[in-house]
Prior knowledge:
The protein has 293 residues and is mainly α.
Amino acid sequence: MVGSCAxxxxxxxxxxxxxxxxxxxxxxxxxxxxxxxxxxxxxxDLPTQRDYNLLYGQVSDALGDWNTSIRYYEAYxxxxxxxxxxxxxxxxxxxxxxGLLDGEYxxxxxxxxxxxxxxxLENLALLGNDPHMRAEAMARVAExxxxxxxxxxxxxxxxxxxxxxxxxxxxxxxxxxxxxxxxFGMIKLKSxxxxxxxxxxxxxxxxxxxxxxxxxxxEAQNKFDICRDxxxxxxxxxxxxxxxxxxxxxxxHHFALAAGEISKGxxxxxxxxxxxxxxxxxxxRLEDLRKDS
Length: 293
């Protein structure tokens, strides 16, 4: 057998895109697409691959093929290149991602594909170059998860907006507040969990401290006060459990904490719950139990 002396196939260069680009410039997008469709991205040398992906994304965009356009714009975005050209592609990805979330773009003109919108915006938030568009994409994904009561995923993106890359872009106030609201949404009122209440309290407290004149100050203060009351209720609930198992010492300890008192050296929540309605009720329960003991 004689070995082949042929080398690897020669990769195409930017000049091989000239005709497709010329047709696109003339507005003949169908013919431009026909030419582009004869190639694959890997047929080109590395510097030209971005040009191919961008041109295919633009042509598909002009033809109204949002699915193909997104695919090629994302491939373009994933490679490094001139920031201004990347910005144009990222603007279209932001447009398509938000449009899919809002139900403006449909599969077969009938079915919404919000999950595709989420993926598009997540890719833009993670891989994009322009911090303004990355932040807006991140905010839309966070809002989508929050509205779907998916607080864990929403928190990831709200926290992302508080990273140094996005400081000074105007998202800090709302992202900080919404992060606290996610923790608040995770509180189960019928089965109070002390740590969950504390997390929400800390987040609202952090917001109020960081943004004393914040856009959401009144609501944050209201939720902070609700959490104070819930924290007292939680310790009252634990105290009730100890009453049921005839452990008066444990019951009095938690009733005291719920009332805003220092008990067994624990002063961690005294200032937080003192003065709430639940604390006054816990105080009465504590006094009754002390009388009976």
